[in-house]
Design a protein that fits this description.
This protein is of the alpha+beta class and 52 residues long. The protein is built from one helix and two strands. It has a two-stranded parallel sheet with strand order 1-2. It starts with a strand and ends in a 12-residue tail after the last strand.
């Protein structure tokens, strides 16, 4: 049976930490599928820069 986990990460002015959080999820070896949704809650800075 496939192991699936869905994670929602709300963020507000945290682009300095978001990549580290995502990396820690990706290295989990006991998951077959991972669904991650990052929600920008009106940050004053550009969270998109973290993903470029």
């Amino acid at each position: 049976m496939e192991k699936l986990i869905s994670i929602i990460i709300p963020t507000y002015n945290m682009e300095a930490y978001i990549l580290k959080a995502l990396e820690s999820l990706v290295i989990q070896r006991n998951l077959d599928a991972l669904d991650v949704l990052v929600i920008n809650d009106g940050s004053k800075t550009s969270i998109r820069r973290a993903f470029e």
